[in-house]
Amino acid sequence: MSLDEIEPIYYDHSYYLAPTAGGSKAYRLLLDAMRESGKVGIGKVVLRTKQQLAALRPTGEVLTLTTMLWGDEVLSPDRIDELESVEEAPASDRELKMAEQLIDSLSAVWDPTQFKDEYRERVIDLIERKAAGEEIAVQPQAEEPAAAPDLMAALEASLAAVGKEDEEPAPKPKRAPAKPRGSSRKTPAKSGS
Fold first, then answer.
1. Cα separations (Å) of 121 from 107, 116, 117, 159?
2. How far is C-alpha 53 from the geometric centre of its chain's CA atoms?
3. Which of 161, 122, 154, 150 is nearest to 138 (CA)?
4. In 3D, which of 29, 22, 55, 24 has the Cα closest to residue 40?
5. pLDDT tens for each residue of 132-147
6. What is the pLDDT of residue 183?
7. Side by side, which strands form the sheet with 41-47?
8. What is the pTM of this model?
9. ∠ CA 152-158-159, rounded to 5°
10. Distance between CA atoms of 85 and 91, rounded to whole angstroms?
11. What pairs with residue 50 in β-bridges?
12. Which among 71, 91, 95 is positioned nearest to 7, based on CA atoms?
């Protein structure tokens, strides 16, 4: 099977594989042949007493075993009713061009070291502080769903900002005059008679 035939949604966890003693030549041969052909091997493996679907594929200079979801574990997007409204909201050529420009301006080379699991880091910090004897009181935070952003406004603002950066440096903002001390007292509002 070709690597590009597999939708990434089916991939689960990846493991690097290394050859056993005396297996280096066979490992190298399989790695090079799979890389040159663009093929992957699909099979079943048992990990932690559970049978799993898996893909054997080349990743750089190493073979990778990637566990996969079974076909019935990935639901079809046809089951999502809200996607019907997407067909009824076509984008104009101008909007599409703006979106492409924004994507181009935000594109960068993939560097996984730029991304950190901040939640995990906070949990580890709490565990270390608790282990050191510190009293920890965590308040639950109520989460409110965020409103859907106005993407067109964001596109226009972003492109306008990029355009200004290309033209000339922005002038420094003017500061409001400082209030004299003691004038922070509020005066009662006068009522009309």
1. 27, 8, 6, 35
2. 25
3. 122
4. 55
5. 998 888 777 767 777 7
6. 44
7. 11-17, 62-68, 50-59, 41-47
8. 0.53
9. 90
10. 13
11. 47
12. 71
